[in-house]
Model the fold of this input.
Amino acid sequence: MKLSTEELDGGITKVILDGRLDIEGAAAIDLKMNVIAGSSKLLLLDMQEVSFLGSMGLRSLVVPSQAVRRRGGKVAIFAPQKMVEEVLKASSIDALIPIRHDLNDALAVLQA
Amino acid sequence: MQQTHAKNEQGRLTLSSRLGDLALVNPWVEALAAEHAIGADTVYAIELCLEEALSNIVRHGYKSAPDHTIELSFHRKGDAMLQFAIEDCAPHFDQTGPGRQPANEDIDYLLPGGHGMPLIRKFSSSVEWEPLPKGNRLTLTFPSRSE
Done:
């Protein structure tokens, strides 16, 4: 599981995730995600290249998102693959972290 | 690196009760998928449900004690269904029982770790638990159609 970041205009941090967000993948990114969540208020989670998401992977997204929200920030998920999106929706994550497939729409969620 | 008891035979896989051993499940499932022409979405559902069920067994059934075994077996159930049975020697525990439900009113109430069984129910056709004389059997079924 790979994680990289890109700073966008407007103070948005884009977190690019790549690989399987299974137990092993979740362990690989947990610390980095928590560090990012501690220093950013607007997080765009780019999930285009995430091929698998399980409940431990969900935890790796939800815990840092909780931290960002508690500090008055916002989080959006960008472009998850079909089955990954089904997992997000089955877990009701989408009710709390908006999912957008258009980049401008995802950025608008954060800038609103 | 810790020793593993993992053993892979056609239609059967034996794991140690370590989360690290779960990495052996996906290659096994993918080999079955190739052999039985199982579609990609069904493979995803199988891998998801097995990861959730097996991690529950390791963490809750065996309380993360590493030197127990978990047996997986695969059977075709007619032409329509794929069946995976997971047997362990842990004390009886019914992971299909009512668990914590993810709340949806506020992100602070989204419970990390509370999604495993709801995901299994959503992505499998059925999930059944039965107590064994010394352990548990969890049986998961999936449709065999390829996408």
